[in-house]
Amino acid sequence: MDLEYVTKLIDLLAKSKIDELEIEEDGKKIRIAKNLQPFAAVQPTVFNVAPAASPAGAVLPQASAAVVAPAAPASGPKLHEVRSPIVGTFYHASAPDAAAFVQVGSVVQKGTILCIIEAMKLMNEIESDLAGKIVQIMIENGQPVEYDQVLFLVEPA
Questions:
Q1: Taking a C-beta distance cutoff of 8 angstroms, is the pair 82, 154 a contact?
Q2: What are the contacts of 120-123 at 24+ separation with CB within 8 A?
Q3: What's the rounded mean pLDDT across residues 50-76?
Q4: By percentage, how much of the chain surpasses pLDDT 70?
Q5: Measuring CA to CA, which residue among 145, 154, 131, 139 is closest to residue 82?
Q6: Which long-range contacts (CB under 8 A, 24 or more apart) does 102-108 make?
Q7: Which of 41, 49, 47 shows the shortest CA–CA distance to 76?
Q8: Across all residues in the chain, what is the average pLDDT?
């Protein structure tokens, strides 16, 4: 691919309503994206978590009892939300036959691997940013996750 061709692709993307374009030609691949949030810009937020009512007509996924714990009581301690820094697929273990990195009740330290999010065939390890105890796992294994979606609720140590 020559520079003029790439420049034309960038101009087309800038003028279009799409945010991302990926082309493979002669064994060379190019990916052009716009309006993406930088990975390092994600800052965790602490909220007092209460069970939320779903919007009228919303369809909520069924949770696996082995993976997701019941919602924390509204009057409980402040919980830390671990959020997804990227869009991808959530995996609770490094392989289908491997043990989960963490479970509800697991005590974690800062830097403990909590899960993997696969994005574009890359496995991204998501680490805990504080010490504490896993109170709730908000997503099931193999499910898609969105940017900034809450993955875990952690009770700070």
A1: yes
A2: 120/88, 123/91
A3: 48
A4: 73
A5: 154
A6: 102/134, 102/137, 102/152, 103/134, 103/137, 104/68, 104/69, 104/134, 104/135, 104/136, 104/137, 105/133, 105/134, 106/133, 106/134, 107/131, 107/132, 107/133, 107/134, 107/157, 108/132, 108/133, 108/134, 108/154
A7: 49
A8: 78
Distance CA 115, CA 100 (A): 8
Quote the CA–CA distance of 36 and 19 in Å, as a whole number: 8
Summarize pLDDT for 50-61 with one digit per residue, the tens: 555 545 554 444
Tokens encoding 101? 């990195």
Higher pLDDT, 21 or 125: 125
Is-contact 91 142, C-beta < 8 A?
A: yes
